[in-house]
Amino acid sequence: MTVHFIGAGPGAADLITLRGARTLAACGVCLYAGSLVPRELLAECPPGARLIDTAQLDLDRITAEMVRAHEEGQDVARLHSGDPSVFSAVAEQMRRLDAAGVPYEVVPGVPAFAAAAAALKRELTVPTVGQTVILTRVAQRATPMPEGEDLATLGRSGALLVLHLAAMYVDRIVDELLPHYGADCPAAVVAMASRPEELVLRGTLGDIAGQVKEAGVVRTAVIMVGRTLGAEQFRDSHLYSAERERPHAPCGEPAASEGASAP
């Protein structure tokens, strides 16, 4: 049978994808990160499904549960918060399943940074202002960052930085980015994005740390720093420009894809 790594989304239960919900409803075993995945999602599991909270389990025990379900002929839903492609600890689970000969697939989900951008009502890439988004974190008690991926190095790019798992270290983040972005650079923090308790903080690199500490934000937050967060005066994109040539499709045939054009 198959292990399905499913992105549960950023927090709101209704932000799981249709494919994710359908897959969850078809699996007799569900392993979920109890501290992050909304409990309401478990209602999508079929009656009698074996539900396993992995919050207190190590990698060996998690793998053992998936292998056991496979041997019993059960499909497994492995629910991860956000999207499995970033900061999900899915890679080491896949490596273990490969070694055990257990097949798996990945169902993408809505990532936390996308939910944060929605809460801010901001497009993160704005023509002539910024076209690059860097997803990263800081190293503290967790796994060290690879060489060349420290904040000082990434900050030299001037790109929009999105920091996960970093709210506790906001002072350090500000100190390392100030020389590259300046105190007036727009910054924002979104905690519990998409959840009822969502909190949005807006400011600059010079004052955002104070806001974070005053609000008591220490976890489940996304920090964003970059000029696109405050962009107002910018050129319209080429995508919908009146000057852009648009091929006329024959009657009954679809026109060229909107996404085929650069910004």
UniProtKB/TrEMBL annotation:
Which residues does the annotated region (Disordered) include? 243-263
Q: What InterPro entries does UniProt report for this protein, alphabetically?
A: 4pyrrol_Mease, 4pyrrol_Methylase_sf, 4pyrrole_Mease_sub1, 4pyrrole_Mease_sub2, Cbl_synth_CobM/CibF, Siro_Cobalamin_biosynth, Uropor_MeTrfase_CS
NCBIfam families in alphabetical order: cobM_cbiF
Q: What family name appears in the similarity comment?
A: Belongs to the precorrin methyltransferase family.
Q: Which organism is it from?
A: Streptomyces albospinus
Name of the molecule in the record: Precorrin-4 C(11)-methyltransferase
- Residue ranges annotated for the Tetrapyrrole methylase domain, each copy included: 2-208
Q: Which domain of life is it from?
A: Bacteria
Is Transferase one of the keywords UniProt gives this record?
A: yes
Keywords in alphabetical order, please.
Answer: Cobalamin biosynthesis, Methyltransferase, S-adenosyl-L-methionine, Transferase
Secreted as a keyword of this entry, yes or no, is no
Pathway-wise, it operates in: Cofactor biosynthesis; adenosylcobalamin biosynthesis
**What CDD domains does the entry give?**
Precorrin-4_C11-MT
